[in-house]
Fold:
Amino acid sequence: MSLTEADTVAEHSDDEQLFAVLNAYVASLQTDDAAAADVELPDELVDQYPELAGILDCLDSLELARGCWRPEGEESRSPTTIIEGPSVGRAFGDYDLLEEIGRGGMGVVYRARHRALQADVAIKLIRGSQLAAADELRRFYQEARVAAGLNHPQIVQVRAVGEYEGQHFLAMDLVEGPNLGSLVADGRPLEPTRAAEIMLDIAGAVQFLHENGCVHRDLKPSNVLIDGEGRPHLTDFGLIKLITPDQRHTLSGTIIGTPDYMSPEQARGHNGEVTALSDIYGLGAVMYELLTGRPPFHEESPLDTMLCVMEKEPLLPRQVVATAPRELEQICLKCLEKSPERRYQSAADVAAEIDRYLKGETIQSAAPSVGRRLARWGRRNPALVSRLAGLAAGGAIVEVNSLVTPGEYPNHLAVMGVLLAWAGLSFLLQQLQWRTSLEGAVSYAWALVDVVSLTALLWIAEGPMDVLVAGYPLLIVASGLWFRVRLVTSMTAACIVACVWLWLSGRLMPGLPRHYPWILFAILLVTGGAVAFQVYRIRTLNRYFERQAVRASIRRGTAAGASDGHNS
Structure:
């Protein structure tokens, strides 16, 4: 805290009381049970002492440190132990807690035994009521009410809900087995027939949800449990959307899904557009991962992932796994259409198509038209398409000029050769970019190819180049679409180096005043700086929201991104 901030605190609060609270809070971070220390969390401290708003980041860092703090002679604790539930082996109302079997964003799940019935169940506990927001409690009881009213063999049934010693809980059927996500972990796809059998059951459960006025909104492999007989069971209704007979009313919280699996309308944040057709997209996303071992989109950050969900097409499953059946690929891609109207119009239609495949019958959905396949290919390869379109336009102009005024352009064949080489290298780099391990290096290589190719064109071109040099600022702007600050700065530097080389060789703006090239260099610098700054702003906002999600997750007692357990 700076001296100015300290003076402000002194003016608006009692120093001794404030420092006592802070000391108690810091001391609580070094205990195994912060809740037992009867101290307030950072947000509550700021509510009581507004002057602390300036050092909230410091308090959050201390909160993070709680999970990693290690007294001498002890091993470090995982951040997921910040908020603990009841200890295993103790009585919890009518149940005995036997073991912890999962953690998630809202709570902890235990295997428990009902003492009177001597039956094992799964007990899901929301975090302590002293830390639970009203919205989270509402979502918790909403999940319980919805799941309790859904009686379907492929949906986990809720048996009881209540509160014991300030701890809200629900008891549900215990599914003995892993979640579906663990079966495709580490990029291991399922055998196609097995994947189709699982998807048939999941689609039936989703259709049952829709018939009962519910939209799940968070379909993903980790929300599907596999029992001992290999049958899937749909779970986790914390983000469910209920549709009343007279109006559409969203009862969910602010989170509307998982970026890797959410539909485009969810990624856009338009809750009113989220309907049963959004779950159809979710079915396609789950099927895609079962067939390929990876979700349709997964980028370095949630922002990048959601941009892909809204704008790009996933790779064809057969491009990822050559043995993926064409029929299942077709069903999967129809579910993953960007426009809801182009998807299957019900989960029953999806189930019927999968059933036809399993029976060896011809699926009924028509193969996409040539135009539709081209549109998908274009969204799947936007960088390549944009370059091919620009090169084709340039080649057409050169060819027309050559035909209209034959003999006036002696370097016609050389120019066409450079354009064809540029297109060929772009196609090769697009193929390499599909390999996840090479994606970062390919983007820089592609930027270098663009600069070198444009410079070669300017070197062999005949006539004035005033208009052609505009290609350099365009390349800088286009590099910003990769959302990487270093790539933008590298492209800017490469363009300036190329222009300096053309200038020194006498090919840049010959016959014009000497200060003209310097104006061009200034334009390139300003363009690169502006694009890099905008990309930096977007990245900063993205990191901020990611950090907010981590903070919220830690305060719920779980690390952000922790894999879901049994209905967790």
Observations:
- The two ends are 39 Å apart (CA to CA).
- The mean pLDDT is 78.
- The chain has four domains: 3-77, 91-174, 180-376, 380-550.
- The longest helix spans residues 515-555.
